[in-house]
Amino acid sequence: MSQPINTLTKETILVYFLKAYLRKRPLFLSLIRAKEAQLFQKYLPFKHPVLDIGCGDGMFAKVTFSKCHPELVSGSQSDKKEMLKRVQHDRLYGSEIDIGLDLAGSRINEARQSGIYKKIIIYDGKEIPFQDNYFSTIISNSTLEHVSDLDTVLKEIYRVLKPGGLFITTVMAKPWEENLFGAKILGDLYKKWMGKKQIHRNLLTKNEWDEAFRKSGFIIKKAIGYLTPQACQLIDVCHYLSLPSLVTYKLFGKWVVFPSLFTRLYPTKSLAQVISENVDPDQSGAIFYLLEK
User: Which H or E run includes 137?
Assistant: First the structure.
């Protein structure tokens, strides 16, 4: 009999999500998303209706919240066993998210084909096209650090969330750039270059993020720091180790050409150990927030 998620080790869950992401995405992105996917698991199943703000191409939701997808089963025998655990325990999957929301210039059209969202909506980045108190749960993964008008977006999220509803979000924080491997060598020049590359408009400290959420009316129920200084440095180095993925994307339109080979080449268990440790949110490169209206 398979184990429920709350009896699986954190490392087991991380390795599963890391392998799932490595079949589709570069190493540096897979490390961050695997950790975020593991953090969201504790709060499944979500109360409906559920809104995903900044859904992008739907990849994160598909890996983290979807039902079984055949492409995730094509791996080693141990991979298939992990997938069977997901099939037999709905809580590990969570449920389909009702609505995915993003900007016209995003990769939202790719999300239409993911099958994870019941409905996809393109909006202007300002007014969320739903009535007050509509959603029971709102999620947002690594989105708020990119938005142009943070106060407006947060006020809109608060408006459409039901009283007592949860807003579950991850955000990049100021220590991210402070702990980049390149920043240790090139200093502010590297931080400025990476900030432009990653389009970080709101790279705030923990206190600044807290203030932004409270100003919009949210109650902070939990804040978890999940990128240690060592993890930030590793992920930065992995940007350059992932260059072959950029080449294959330019040539073939795919980040990963041989998924099974890639997951076997990487020391996934060792990598999972590096990203498994949580850290004081004040010192973390990214923060997981559980917020309540």
Answer: strand 135-141
Q: How far apart are CA 160 and CA 127, in angstroms?
A: 10
* Distant-in-sequence, close-in-space partners of 154: CB < 8 Å, separation ≥ 6: 144, 212, 213, 215, 216, 218
| Domain spanning 5-292: CATH superfamily | Vaccinia Virus protein VP39 (3.40.50.150)
Lowest mean per-residue pLDDT among 78-92, 125-139, 177-191: 78-92
Cα 27 to Cα 59: distance, rounded to the nearest angstrom: 15
Q: What is the token pair recorded at 131? A: 């009535």
Residues 140-154: pLDDT tens digits?
999 999 999 999 999
Q: Where are the domains of the chain?
A: 5-292
Q: What is the pLDDT of residues 233-272, one digit of tens each?
A: 999 999 998 888 888 878 878 878 777 776 777 888 899 8
- Do residues 171 and 289 make contact, with C-beta atoms less than 8 angstroms apart? yes
Q: Are strands 50-53 and 135-141 parallel, antiparallel or unpaired?
A: parallel
Instruction: Give CA–CA dist 64/13, Å, rounded.
Output: 11
Average pLDDT of the chain is: 85
**Helix (H), strand (E), coil (C) string for 17-57:** HHHHHHCCCCHHHHHHHHHHHHHHHHHCCCCCCEEEECCCC
Are the C-beta atoms of 91 and 120 separated by less than 8 Å? no
pLDDT at 89 over 70: no
Statement: residue 129 has pLDDT above 50:
yes
